[in-house]
Amino acid sequence: MSLEGLFNWASQEIKWALFIVLFVALIVTAFKRAWIALVGVLIGLAFIGIFIVNPDTLISISEFIAEKLNLGN
């Protein structure tokens, strides 16, 4: 018996929980006018969007950087 279905379900739930927590933190920091914390929350949302929702983006980013640095010739 495989646990792949349970893993996929848990990863989806964790993704949505992180989104909700960060959006609440975004609203709270904007209301308190804590601008530095607000920027940190926005960076956190960007990391979730890039690396958790679409992990294949990490591969394309690394390929782009390797191409620009002329690595792997």
Helix-strand blueprint:
Layout: H1 4-32, H2 35-53, H3 56-68
Helix pairs in contact: 1-2
Salient structural properties:
single chain; 73 residues; mainly alpha; 84% helix
Average residue-wise pLDDT: 84
Count of separate DSSP helical elements: 3
Overall, the morphology is flat
Largest sheet data = none
**Total number of domains:** 1
Q: Rg from C-alpha positions?
A: 17 Å
Distance N terminus to C terminus?
44 Å
Give a count of the beta strands, DSSP E runs of length 2 or more: 0
Helix content: over 70%
Structural class, from secondary structure content? mainly alpha
Strand content: under 5%
N-to-C SSE series? HHH
Summarize the structure.
By secondary structure, the chain is mainly α. 84% of the residues lie in helices and 0% in strands.
